[in-house]
Design brief:
Elements lengths: L2 H20 L6 H24 L3 H19 L6 H18 L1 H24 L1 H7 L2 H8 L4 H4 L6 H22 L5 H23 L3 H34 L6 H33 L6 H28 L20
Helix pairs in contact: 1-2, 1-3, 2-3, 4-12, 4-13, 5-10, 5-11, 9-10, 9-11, 9-12, 10-11, 11-12, 11-13, 12-13
Length: 335
Amino acid sequence: MDLDVFVSTHRAEWDRLDTLLRRRRRLNGAEADELVVLYQRTATHLSVIQSSAPDPQLTGRLSQLVARARSAVTGTRRASWRDVTRFLAHGFPAAVYRSRHWWVPTALISTAVAALLGWWIGTHPEVQAAIGAPANLRTLTRPGGEYETYYSSHPAASFAAQVWTNNAQATALCLVLGIFLGLPVLYILLENMLNLGVGIGLMSSAGRLDTFLGLVLPHGLLELTAVFVAAGTGLRLGWTLIDPGPRSRRTALAEEGRAALGMAIGLALVLFVSGAIEGFVTPSGLPTWARIGIGVVAELAFLTYVFVLGGRAARAGDTGDLAAAERSATVPTAA
């Protein structure tokens, strides 16, 4: 295609569209119809140029023109409570469900790593000696020690807010840093499992593993599940960069990235619940079985939400991405 001839042929239409957009609030009926027709033609022209004779400057100008025209034709859409309800009932659980082949193995492997680290530390005194001096370890593990007082060392409300903030940052990092081939995600996972393994090992060596699990499980089940979901999704995003499948790499990353951003918001709500449990339930005077029971109920409720509600939404075609009408137009690519 001769780009100069193409531009000369259609420049008048683009200029006319620009003129109509500048005075769109004062258009009569015929001019409004003309704007719609010119918008459709210019969008077609943009696709032709992108696929046949890409020119960065011209493509940028037409992309801006088409975006302005699209806004004028479709109007500005405002978020509503219906969008929030749809996100919580369909988009978020569907996105988590679609990522299950990544985060479920991540959860199983990570838990096994933490358990093995705990066994290794708990059964090898020389490893414990490398972690800290015996006096310091006794301060951590003794009845009323730092492992126990940690959860009641601050007012419940402020502690819950601090925990929620820290965990939300960790999950957001897993989702965002997945774009770097997932390598930072593996580091974050290893760091979390190492901390958990050290706690298991030291408390088991002191004969107080039951106390430790009674403190960790009430909030830890839901909290770690959220971390595993974020990590698995981050790894999936990294793999999309390597293997985008039938989509173009740019399209695949855009779709998966938008879904991951939505998941960050949803997981922040999940972590708010786990933070509330950690702040108010874990240090409470409830019996151990009651505290763990609350954690188990919260975990089962989340899994039911994902696999029942999310599975149904995913099978209906929801991916957690924006609705088709809200995405930017894309140019078809050859297979």
